[in-house]
Design a protein that fits this description.
By secondary structure, the protein is of the alpha/beta class. Helices cover 38% and strands 17% of the residues. Helix 3 runs parallel beside helix 4 and helix 6 runs parallel beside helix 11.
Length: 345
């Protein structure tokens, strides 16, 4: 059945068919993956989303049945976000929120992100999240029950591309509080890779081209590690070539990189903050969070332990497709329910 075809005779309609939904952001790998067939995506790719502007929302209210907020609201002040959520209520447009991050990795203090989440969760008709641990935290912190939906597949492995046993990869991006001690991460990762009989590759986004710490550059110049700059469309291929991928951030909740690694068969070493290990059983944790900071010994040990394990097989494509179909069905049912509730209000 294609996107435009009606249901076959005798079959129930696809949940959410014909419902007009504004996704914020309009398009992203996760947003695209969970959109049910038959749902009409309203708006365009402009960023930041114009639908976060109250004037735009009011002017175009008749064009939309529901708003689904994933991310992008952090640019607003808390008072603006509260007013936006209240405007949705005034207009009778139901709000669905997916909580991807319970703390913003780009901000060292949780206070701002916490107040932003409180503002939208207070008025959301339905709250979704990706792991049971995150759902428990949402219930404890905000008093909201969240529906847990699995993070769907984002990619497929390249059958022509192999992985190198023992190769450990760490991505270093622009300076941010997400990686406050890049040299410490690199030195600990190098120690773990060498002790496990492997080698270290530092991955740098060529489009961003961050200024690397001179110590990291010196390690590369001495041949102790490898520096690789990759293009916009090469990230999945870079992850597929690794035995172990290290997530260097000190805070966060979920990661699309975990799902890409699951899809292509790369083991993940992830920080103890958040719920990364809830996403996939092959994740090996190490201590790194916003309270205690990086424990380099635990990172080196986690990498060494990960290298002793065999490389995981890429995720079964049939199972991943079934999972994505189920996730889309849940989203369709949620949209249908909130719109039905609106029609009876």
């Amino acid at each position: 059945m294609t996107h435009a075809e009606p249901p076959l005779p005798g079959l129930p309609p696809v949940p959410g068919t014909g419902i007009r939904v504004v996704s914020i952001p309009h398009a992203a790998p996760y947003v695209d993956a969970v959109l049910p067939p038959g749902v009409v995506r309203v708006g365009g790719p402009a960023e930041p989303s114009p639908w976060l502007d109250r004037a735009h929302l009011t002017t175009h209210a008749a064009e939309v049945d529901a708003v689904h907020l994933h991310a992008g609201h952090g640019r607003l002040e808390v008072a603006e976000l509260e007013a936006w959520a209240e405007e949705l209520q005034r207009l009778g447009i139901p709000l669905v929120v997916t909580v991807h991050q319970l703390q913003d990795p780009g901000h060292p203090s949780p206070a701002r992100h916490d107040t932003h989440l409180a503002a939208v969760l207070a008025t959301a008709e339905v709250v979704l999240t990706l792991t049971p641990g995150a759902a428990d935290e949402i219930a404890e912190r905000y008093g909201r029950t969240a529906i847990v939906v699995a993070h769907p597949s984002l990619t497929v492995p390249d059958p022509e591309l192999g992985a190198e046993r023992g190769l450990v990869g760490v991505r270093l991006g622009p300076a941010s509080s997400a990686v406050p001690d890049p040299v410490g991460i690199v030195r600990a990762a190098l120690s773990g890779a060498l002790s496990g009989g492997g080698r270290l590759r530092i991955l740098v986004d060529a489009a961003v081209a961050p200024a690397l710490d001179p110590e990291v550059v010196a390690l590369a110049d001495r041949g102790e590690l490898e520096l690789v700059r990759y293009g916009d469309d090469e990230w999945t291929a870079q992850l597929q070539q690794l035995h172990v991928a290290v997530l260097p951030e000190r805070c966060g909740t979920h990661s699309p990189d975990v799902e890409v690694c699951r899809d292509v068969g790369t083991r993940v070493v992830a920080p103890s903050c958040g719920w990364f290990a809830d996403q996939w059983s092959e994740v090996v944790p190490y201590t790194n969070d916003e309270r205690t900071g990086l424990d380099p010994v635990s990172l080196a040990a986690a990498i060494g332990a990960a290298l002793t394990r065999p490389m995981p097989r890429p995720a079964d494509r049939g199972w991943r497709e079934e999972q994505r179909t189920a996730v889309r069905e849940v989203h369709g049912e949620v949209y249908a329910q909130v719109v039905a509730d609106r029609s009876w209000a």
